[in-house]
Amino acid sequence: MFSVDTYQRRRATLRHQVKNGVLLFLGNIDNPINFEHNTYPFRQDSTFLYYFGIQQAGLAALIDLDEQRTIVFGDELTMDQIVWMGRQETLREKCAGAGVGEVLPFGLLTTYLSEAVNKGRVIHYLPPYQAYNKILLHELLKQPITSLTGSVSFIEAVVAQRSIKEEQELEEIEKAVEVSVEMHLLALRLARPGMREREITNAIQHFAADRGCPLSYPPIVTVHGEILHNAYQQNHLREGQLLLNDSGAETALGYAADLTRTFPVSKRFTSRQREIYDIVHMAFQRANSLLRPGIPFKEVHLHACESLVEGLISIGLMKGDPKEAVSHHAHTLFFQCGLGHMMGLDVHDMEDLGEQYVGYTSDEPKDTATFGLKSLRLGRNLQTGFVLTVEPGIYFIPELIDMWQSEHKLQEFINYDKLRDYRDFGGVRIEDNFVITDDGSRRLGPELIHTADDIEHYKAQHA
Amino acid sequence: MFSVDTYQRRRATLRHQVKNGVLLFLGNIDNPINFEHNTYPFRQDSTFLYYFGIQQAGLAALIDLDEQRTIVFGDELTMDQIVWMGRQETLREKCAGAGVGEVLPFGLLTTYLSEAVNKGRVIHYLPPYQAYNKILLHELLKQPITSLTGSVSFIEAVVAQRSIKEEQELEEIEKAVEVSVEMHLLALRLARPGMREREITNAIQHFAADRGCPLSYPPIVTVHGEILHNAYQQNHLREGQLLLNDSGAETALGYAADLTRTFPVSKRFTSRQREIYDIVHMAFQRANSLLRPGIPFKEVHLHACESLVEGLISIGLMKGDPKEAVSHHAHTLFFQCGLGHMMGLDVHDMEDLGEQYVGYTSDEPKDTATFGLKSLRLGRNLQTGFVLTVEPGIYFIPELIDMWQSEHKLQEFINYDKLRDYRDFGGVRIEDNFVITDDGSRRLGPELIHTADDIEHYKAQHA
């Protein structure tokens, strides 16, 4: 946990933002795998972590703005549970560490909220993403499950606060990046023809776990880099292929990192692979150079797209004017997704609270219709203290190429003939994590090698 | 998956048992970690696996006994999803592998069930353990969430069928045991003073993952073997301590193993550790020798308890007549839990369906009041084809000893004075998996060393 005044200060800021009513925070429980008591590793809800820091299943908390009380609801271990699970720090002790003196049995939450509702007071809550918290809210608030969309003023206050990272949060994220950099170097050293993708995943997971870090999301480790969310990782690595590794660690306090590198299974890139890699790398650098307070991230995204198009024109896969190509979204045949997203206690930070609040504003809402832009999670003006990923890529997706070609789509910008040779190329992505600073941005954590030369050099050294 | 006729045959057997109404099977979805799309590794519901074998999130199935239809409800990937997740075997293809020709979009499940309900037909369902399936059932059946306890005739038919393992299921369980035995040998080789418990867990998890096996439950790897469900694994192993390793793998088809060994961190047991170990080992062998069709497992449990008491008397920790001590539950100061449980597609097989159906019968219900027996998951008469664990142990729990001693509890059987020296001893458990055969039982999978001599010998060889 951070220091006790961290949590007190964060809650004080929040209280000033929302002003009245009751702010309700629901923690997570242990999620069942295949029966109630066989459970996945526990992960506390990130907003609960942010304001209370207590990593224990089965808690709720509230800040009563009208009556100026802050209460954690949860149950101490019974003697039976101590026999089974061992003596542990009590809940009361944990709450003291978060600066909360009032601890009540979980069962009293219903009573407290019913009384508040009866007095005509507003219960503010956040959009539930765990089904058990939907049921709990349904029971607490007597509302249909489908109508539990959250309280906008509460959501906006939390997003405003969590978006600007404190110095100690940046340090945590840098710790996460540090472990992740080591994971990526390990993958670079391990990868060789004949291995299965899954073996790389298992090794980096083991490495992170030994450092006390779970992974911040299910890693994508694949020779099919063009499959953006590839869960199947049974392929054998083959000579001449590229391996894409998108993986990151999470610190004990819950802060995420999210890095991607793409590198040859064998020692060297082929000349074609290096061409595509360098194009992605150029776009990556272009994007990074633009990061600064005030610029809309959507603009950074479009600049990166233009850089990709310039590169693709230079090798004959695209044609025409780069700006015009981007304005027609012709780049989305190769770069179907967004340039990046906010990152913090969640790898897609605050995704549970709603992209319309986190990545966009009501003045500049998301384009939810256009292929490409509809997958851009972050579009708003950047501010000092935002932490985000930059992750351009080029992906040759056979199904998409076939579809576009059959429609002769944007053929003024795409050389479909030449593209035939790249059908089985796969995909390349490069991704790092940045914090926006007053005068630009800073890469978080130690630098992980990212030029084609450096990668080949590292592979040669560790062959 | 098993062969198509496996699933057809299993469903045919079930149809004959329940006879009319609609049998509803809800599959699992991807459980969220900290936001909806950041998810834990998928695990299909075990009963769904048993009758349909399809490992895909977001499915339901039904067997309409009145109209003689078997339908899987689920959605094929959209083009957008193929772009993101890659082309995969279609749902229709997977269903063909389970012998199901009728596949409908998931959204039609509500329609189908409403029509069935309107016709006055019974919808049979199993007790939901996933909150999202509670919500789904609540919406489908228009019943309050708290009243969704399941259909007894359906539960009983499933339990009767899943309790008797087929030959091919035994082969799967033996594969799980085989990987688990290797995990345990790895732990024996790795453990040394200075390591943390968690590092052993990480290494065996990595080992299993490389063989395509998740773990069948969160491993308990601890120098505090007396803590029965120990999640905290940050202790450093020290010279002279015992390490308890309770862990098992699950095969790709979902079958579990569940093994425990307790061994010295350093090369040799102390003489006191060996005494306790040998007592547990005697009880383990006594229990195994009694396994046969027709014997109530509760009786096997009580024989094992008696064996433990005999041993504890021999070293002066208990006194009096062993049988009498057991009848007064005096052994529960040292052995607080049950001797074993059913095992199969779940490590506690079918625990979601209800212990009263799986481990007990209405004629011989569970003793839910008595400390010790209330934790015995299996009490009923054994039958050929049952698969179960045998896992006696001795646990010195300081909190429990203090409580009993302060009450002078059962002091005619307990030497509290002598016990003082064992306060910090920890705990010992030995656990293997057995199938009940016509003439007794058979240990499943390759034998894992279990005598104190063998363990010391193995440690010496791999030092």
From TrEMBL, chains A, B:
CDD domains per UniProt: Prolidase
The keyword Protease is assigned to this record: yes
Cofactor entry: Mn(2+)
Catalytic activity, reaction form: Release of any N-terminal amino acid, including proline, that is linked to proline, even from a dipeptide or tripeptide
InterPro entries: Aminopep_P_N, Creatin/AminoP/Spt16_N, Creatinase/aminopeptidase-like, Pept_M24, X-Pro_dipept-like
Any Pfam family: Peptidase_M24
Biological process according to GO: proteolysis
Annotated GO CC locations: cytosol
Gene Ontology molecular function: any one: metalloaminopeptidase activity
Location of the Aminopeptidase P N-terminal domain: 2-134
Sorted UniProt keywords: Aminopeptidase, Hydrolase, Manganese, Metal-binding, Protease
EC number: 3.4.11.9
Similarity comment: family membership: Belongs to the peptidase M24B family.
Protein name per the record: Xaa-Pro aminopeptidase
